[in-house]
Structure formats: C-alpha cells, structure tokens
C-alpha cells in the first residue's frame, strides 16, 4: 500500500494527519521488511524524545485494523510491514536473519480444505520462515 492510499483510509475513518502518523507511515514506505515497534521507536526518538511505546502501538494497531499494515509474530514479538499492493491472493516466505520477504503464489488452503469437509473457513494466514539464499 502506498502512503496516499493509507491517508485516504485514515481520513475516511476520521483520523487526523499528525506528524507522528506521517513519520510512522514514511518509515514503512521505505522498507518491504517486517519491522518491530522498537525499530519505529528508535527512529522516532530522534525527533520525538518523549515518544512512548503506547503511542507507537496504538497507531500500529489502528493501521493493522484498517488494512494499512500486515502483522506477524517473529521470535515472540509482533512485526509489521506495509500491506501488499497486489490484487491476487498470495503468501510470504520471511527470512529470519535479514527479514527479506519472497512472495509465494501458491495457497495450501486449496489442498487443506479437502481434508476438513463440512468446515467453513472464513480466513487463514500462511507464512514460511527460514533463511534466504543470501543468508543461508
């Protein structure tokens, strides 16, 4: 997702444009990797020395709820990245060393659905973790 789409969603939901929200979105727009709230805080402390985790997490959670950010858990910590801008269903391989992401254009749910007849799946999340060729 690009920043313009993100602001359109935020404005539509009644959120004001603030310097802090703008900086958070700018940080995400410059990377395709998953990053933590700590990563965001470290960058923002330079301009906003009194910045708190609560402010960061509140904004990150809002961005996730609105579909601006994706979230996953790596090593017991929530990580976030900008929502993909593709119009097809896909999943990701996430490198545990460098954080690079590789798109996977296959969905295992097509196979798994047959193994649980009668169950209605409303949503799913599938991620693969490991090391990319550069980190292997």
UniProtKB/TrEMBL annotation:
Domain of life: Bacteria
Record SUPFAM superfamilies: Winged helix' DNA-binding domain
Main localization (coarse): cytoplasm
Localization, UniProt: Cytoplasm
Annotated keywords: Cytoplasm, DNA-binding, Repressor, Transcription, Transcription regulation, Zinc
A Pfam short name: FUR
Family: Belongs to the Fur family.
Protein name: Transcriptional repressor
Record organism: Psychrobacillus faecigallinarum
